[in-house]
Amino acid sequence: MTRALALCAYLLAVQAEPSIEVHIVAHTHDDVGWLKTVDEYYTGQNNSIQHAYVHMILDTVVRCLEQNPNRTFTYVELAFFVRWWRQQDDSTKALVKRLVSSGQLEFSNGGWCMHDEAAPHYLDMIDQTTLGHKFLMEEFGIAPRTGWQLDPFGHSATQAALLSAEVGFQGLFFGRIDYQDLALRKDKKEAEFIWRASPSLGSDAQVFSGLTGEYGGNYGPPSGFDWDAFSSDETIQDDPQLEDYNVKSRVDDFVKVAMVEASQTRGRHIMMTMGSDFQYEDAFTWFYNLDKLIQHVNADGRVHVFYSTPGRYVDAKKSEQVTWPLKEDDFFPYADGPHQFWTGYFTSRPALKRYIRDTSALFQVAKQISAIAGNPTSSEQQGLEKLAEAMGVAQHHDAVSGTAKQHVTFDYAERLAKGRAAAVTGISAALGRLTDARSSSEFSYCDLRNVSVCAPTEAVGKTNKRACFALWNGLGHEREELIELPVSTDKVEVVNGMSNQAVEIQLVESLQSLTNYGAQAGGAAHTLLALVKLPAVGHASYCLQTAGAPAPKAQLANISQGDCQAIENENLKLWFCAGMLANITDKLSKVSARAEQSWMWYNASLGNAESSQASGAYIFRPNRSQAFPVFTGLPFMRLFRGPLADEVHQEVGSWISQRIRLARGSRHVEITHTVREIPVDDGWGKEIVSRISTDLKNSGVCYTDSNGREMLQRKRDYRPTWKLNQTEEVAGNYYPVTTSLFIRDETAQLTVLTDVSEAGTGCVRDGEIELMVHRRLLKDDARGVGEPLNETQYVTPYLGSDQGRHYGPGLVVRGQHWLHFGAPATAARNWRPLMDRLYLPVQPFFGQGSPSRSFSAMQGALPPNLEVLTLAQWDDEHILLRIGHQFGLGEDSELSKPTSVNIKSLLVGATVISIEERGLAATITRAEVEQRRIAWHVEQSPVHPTPLQSDDFTFGPLQIRTFFVKIKRTDMAMFI
Amino acid sequence: MTRALALCAYLLAVQAEPSIEVHIVAHTHDDVGWLKTVDEYYTGQNNSIQHAYVHMILDTVVRCLEQNPNRTFTYVELAFFVRWWRQQDDSTKALVKRLVSSGQLEFSNGGWCMHDEAAPHYLDMIDQTTLGHKFLMEEFGIAPRTGWQLDPFGHSATQAALLSAEVGFQGLFFGRIDYQDLALRKDKKEAEFIWRASPSLGSDAQVFSGLTGEYGGNYGPPSGFDWDAFSSDETIQDDPQLEDYNVKSRVDDFVKVAMVEASQTRGRHIMMTMGSDFQYEDAFTWFYNLDKLIQHVNADGRVHVFYSTPGRYVDAKKSEQVTWPLKEDDFFPYADGPHQFWTGYFTSRPALKRYIRDTSALFQVAKQISAIAGNPTSSEQQGLEKLAEAMGVAQHHDAVSGTAKQHVTFDYAERLAKGRAAAVTGISAALGRLTDARSSSEFSYCDLRNVSVCAPTEAVGKTNKRACFALWNGLGHEREELIELPVSTDKVEVVNGMSNQAVEIQLVESLQSLTNYGAQAGGAAHTLLALVKLPAVGHASYCLQTAGAPAPKAQLANISQGDCQAIENENLKLWFCAGMLANITDKLSKVSARAEQSWMWYNASLGNAESSQASGAYIFRPNRSQAFPVFTGLPFMRLFRGPLADEVHQEVGSWISQRIRLARGSRHVEITHTVREIPVDDGWGKEIVSRISTDLKNSGVCYTDSNGREMLQRKRDYRPTWKLNQTEEVAGNYYPVTTSLFIRDETAQLTVLTDVSEAGTGCVRDGEIELMVHRRLLKDDARGVGEPLNETQYVTPYLGSDQGRHYGPGLVVRGQHWLHFGAPATAARNWRPLMDRLYLPVQPFFGQGSPSRSFSAMQGALPPNLEVLTLAQWDDEHILLRIGHQFGLGEDSELSKPTSVNIKSLLVGATVISIEERGLAATITRAEVEQRRIAWHVEQSPVHPTPLQSDDFTFGPLQIRTFFVKIKRTDMAMFI
């Protein structure tokens, strides 16, 4: 072939090649609080901090869509949309309904917020998604088809499997992945792929996933095509009458960008995310230029461009016969450059994180009580809604993540407090109905029990009143627990409210003295442990009352500081040497291991020679990989032995205290730490870790949970899908520990359950795990929040010259680590149920008068590997019931197996009229979820996903199934 | 009366007091070029310089007005509006017409731009206003009722009298007045007043005037109530469901602001200008909050607030029985603080200013020729429109003022160049028809005659062609002038094209050698002066042709440098000593005076101990009051004597040259200066003045013109309406000299006419006048333009890291000062007509072929004190004719008297069907202007304005009358 002929052939080939189809997805990313509170963002207040005014975004977008029926827009965060919707008049609502129905306005994600993927518990993710989806179904009759997680700082397996596939999303889009991963994916045309994230759920729960932001690790428009009103990018000037006509150069720029993007994925269709943080406040600017872009690029003809949405985009990708790469792990940790691991936020603002988790449990219980009591009043419903919305806001990826400004953090906490108060009013009324109590408002909740403050129990002995309480167990199994009650005197006892039988009790030292807050609020010096027994999903009634004799007290042992001492029960033996835990033995499996605990701190980098990156709210970067001991002296240790539990109390230097409790019969040990104000007078920010060094030979492998569901294997300096160039040997091996972390070897497994999300690892050094429980930093890490993570009691308002100054004492953090130790084969059957118990503690509601009769909503027992996850009133007709299989594939020889249960006969006291299986977010049927599944072609994998078990009520490992249960209540309270 | 009773009485009085009525005037102030070019502003380009996107302003405002019929908006600058209008589809146009017709959208000012009030010639102000008003009348059938000069840096008497009262404005609003004046006015409830600015026109031409911007010396919203999308002011949060509900505090804030504003003027009505520079790009944000403000403030009830417009506001003020203070002088100079006199911009960018003035003359002539020739083609009309629009843009208060960025200045110049070229094409065609020339495109214009470049005349002698030209006289009187023609050879002559009679000529040295530009462009070394005679409003034809003998040449006199030398003619004698003008004698009135000219420079302040204020584009601030001589040696002087004129050529140091010409029979002397690149290597910015020191005893009093009309008396360190605290003895006594400046005592008057606006004074030192002709500065003066006034040949584009860097040689400036000297009583009759001659020089259009016959459009002579100001085609039917009385009240014993003329018989060759008198901007009748007049009550003044003479064609002093003349053309060309 001559050269000329070759050229001709080439040109023909080029011409024949199908053109690139560019989907323009106009969108705005509206943080549900970050630099400003959610309401400041909505109402445009405090614009000096950040210009953002969501009300105006929705106002102008709707007008722009009305103006031109070709235009489309994608909205995401229902927290904002619902605020706006409630303010609209009927004609605007009718217009918006038309826009939604025509597809011009599409909701993607559609949760209350765009939740974080590291810190939230899976139930909070499900709840906040359901909250948004319920609104969308009720108002518009729609259920979003795509996930839209553009901004979260890493992406979880649970997001892909549960919050995408199981919700009924056909695609999941996000912006931030590791910079090395990103570069490789662009190279290998893997910017889009099939993500099959849960080994337990398998290919059924896979989702088509795509990077956004021109595959640039972000979610904005291509460089140079930001036409937000606040941008300076070159607009399209197509009026030849005026100077600087630039149609040709702008079209050329665009075609180039489209070609590059198309080269990084598969198929002809690509998506451009035309929008960014709080953009479209003046939607007219964007749409005017997009209209012109579309007009002129299509006239040029080299690529084809049009308004689209994530839903339409997935439809287009579906129509292409493309074989996709497969992704099976998750996207943690996220790094946006060398030394820049976003692993600090797994721990940032631990008190907010803990408050959210604590509230989550209360919320679950509140929903249960309301559903069971039935016939809620509107104020009860509003109370629950208020809490639901506060929790929805709190799951945002700058809320629970701990990456918001201080005053915003306070706002999150305030919303939760108000939500809790509102919900408790409702619970009180419902409990009143449920327990035949005289008044509907007589139950109170001791919000400050964590600092030993509880007026009803503290009053016992001071007055002649007793304190009776309904103790709610939200789990689907009977349960025996040690509960803690603050008491003012030792002459108290606890009796069962019905039988009047005294229960076993033990008096221990309360922890209130460790903080000023407890003492200031009148916290009790003593805590009464009481051993209580509770039915499944229900309550028993107990009363604290004065007794003739003092309660049995834990006795302070006479020990010699520094010597080795042991505590033990039927199952475990713990050795303490030099004041700290040194060894642990599982008596049953006769496994023993060195287990030396130490409290350490990393020196938060302020930037150094290697990199200017500082440690901050987002990023964890120790200035060197070796941590310093918090205290180099001998910790002061006390040992208390009592009939119900032994406790070791330790003072590790002047600002860390720890209580280790081993209860009678317990298979685990509870470590409660109190980290008081972290000293930073030396100019060094500090990141506090609890470390346990063992002789387990885990070879750099550890396991961390994904939002409390699947356990994921982690390996030192390793990523499953690419060869990692590791730049931070500690921070780069940190992972989110939302609920659990373990290391193991052939003989033993050490599992730590946390009561809150923490950054942790078991991969850095063999046999060693560490969990970061608190951080106090002095420099901002330049990811936007604009203040060092230096949590104090107060902050000045954003007015005048003294804006946002932090002052007052530093944050005190208390938390729990539950340790399980034993043979690997039997570990899961112990720690999996423990995980549920730690998440959902029993909740006492203190009544004014006499005890109520106890009951359970459950008829017969659930199989041990199933759990009731949600029991809530959905609407007038339906109870929403979620039941989950709580064991991962292969975790336990028996309990990981599929299990069946007869839902129909599960609940007490109601005639079940029908049961309908729903998608995870409940607004569509399970059948529709299945129908939405797309048979993607996947490399090295069967083409068709196998549907999950959907026969009558069988649950595969870690499967969650959601039901609408239509009942006829046989009583005012459904179950009684 | 008891105390309690007194309190009751007080409270009743307070309650009974009428509430304050707050007019919300939503508006945007859109600079027609400043930091960006007019098109950059319109299309949103270069937003990194300044975020501004006028297209979006108009788009969103219109949608907001459509949304709520209560909303109103005021738009001002037609340059932008017309750009937008031309891009709109029919439905948007129909909507806008509805909005205008309902009064929701009001145009205030309605000129092409918001013109500067210091630098523009009054005809340019009239033209640009007429251009905008014509559009508004044609498209919407409306004529603005108010003036809106919010931003210009001082306010002229001509603005009040001609461009307000005579245009038919019922109110004039502006923001910037001297800070001392402002404080006093607020104190004395004089923030609004009646401005009767022209002694000649009297109370007929008064206008109700008001300060804007909460009377704060600006034009924005009250502090804290800026709800532009780019602002951070607190929005109104009135949703009790959300946090930070702030209705009470916002209402309180607003009521307070309204009370304060109301206390500073008279009557119950006040106006708030809700908008500012380029605001309302997202109009939704503004209107949404204004809606809420109105709702909640009115619910509160302490003040009443509503959407309004300047027109509605004037109506409301009219309805109040209030007596107003009277203002009779002008608002120059403007200072916004001590040492901060905005008197630099009177001279800033002198070459741009001169180019605009030069183009103004060409524009007047172009309109005349087109109107006279009649039946213009559409390309002729488009040419004129292009020039009209370029001139409209150029009058903007950051254009001709010299306060725009360098690249914007280049854009203004480019627009003028393109406009001139387009108009000349039209003139050529019209002249073709008018002169029976064979082709309609054969006339060319020598744009570069100022540097002695003119291909047709330079070719004479090189080829055997002669250069015939139609020489246009735009004035309404016959005229004899010395014209300058660049010639390549001395063997040339000039003959009358019809009679072939040679005219008197004289060869002089051209000035092209003084700049590189002339030489580079092939400028001729010789200039031929020819004495030509021209009819009124018409042309004569002359030809330059080769001659057998050399033309008479000015002879270099043999003088001894430094000695005193004289030149003289019939009227004047000038003495030069030590190389510079030293003495001047008026031979007729036998008055003589010392008149020592010197070139001086002020050291531009970079800020000093007294004030940090630097001298810059806006502000003139010499670092000390004493100027330095440009050259301390003996200027090199040459003296040429010739038959038509004597010339003195001087070199004042290395970078200033000067030519002083005294023509035979002339009553004035012409000084042409060339200021080449001002050296600034010493780090000192320099402001160059020509100073003439005389022994006139003017006692600190001088007179400067107001835009070329009324002469205003100025006094040293004095303002007519308040006791000035003077902080700058030079800059604070500088005034705009748009065309003329004089000082006088009982025996003599020295008048200087300028060919361009300049900063000048005759008040600083007795007997001394100075005019600033050039400035080169090294520091920005912090008033927004953001670059030092350091004009160079090039500037880098606003891209990348090298944005807006100035480079290349510094600006060269050439200009003329015409000096008249004589007895005060007869001064005006000389300098007033000279002012017209200097403004409107005769214009040669060079034809390709044979000479054309000459003609005049005037039938009979105009009275000597009247002048034809505008003669233009208005529409298919009407000729627009403006005639002005050119003498101020009392300036001349005879010529200042009212004069009559019969308009009907004024014009040649057309049957006048009707004559209708119009307002100054021509779109409404004179009767409507009169009808719009409001009989304001004025302190110490008759209540009713006396209408101007409106009988048949009588003109009072300085009166301008505007007519529609409906004619029947008797020939293809109207007048021939």
From TrEMBL, chains A, B:
Residues 1-16 form the signal peptide. It catalyses: Hydrolysis of terminal, non-reducing alpha-D-mannose residues in alpha-D-mannosides. Pfam families: Alpha-mann_mid (PF09261), Glyco_hydro_38C (PF07748), Glyco_hydro_38N (PF01074). It is an enzyme of class 3 (hydrolase). Gene3D superfamilies: 2.60.40.1360, Glycoside hydrolase 38, N terminal domain, Glycoside hydrolase family 38, central domain, Golgi alpha-mannosidase II, Golgi alpha-mannosidase II, domain 4. It comes from the Eukaryota. Binds 1 zinc ion per subunit. Residues 340-416 form the Glycoside hydrolase family 38 central domain. GO terms for molecular function: alpha-mannosidase activity; carbohydrate binding; metal ion binding. InterPro entries: Gal_mutarotase_sf_dom, Glyco_hydro/deAcase_b/a-brl, Glyco_hydro_38_C, Glyco_hydro_38_cen, Glyco_hydro_38_cen_sf, Glyco_hydro_38_N, Glyco_hydro_38_N_sf, Glyco_hydro_57/38_cen_sf. One of its GO terms (biological process) is mannose metabolic process. Its EC number is 3.2.1.-. This is Alpha-mannosidase.
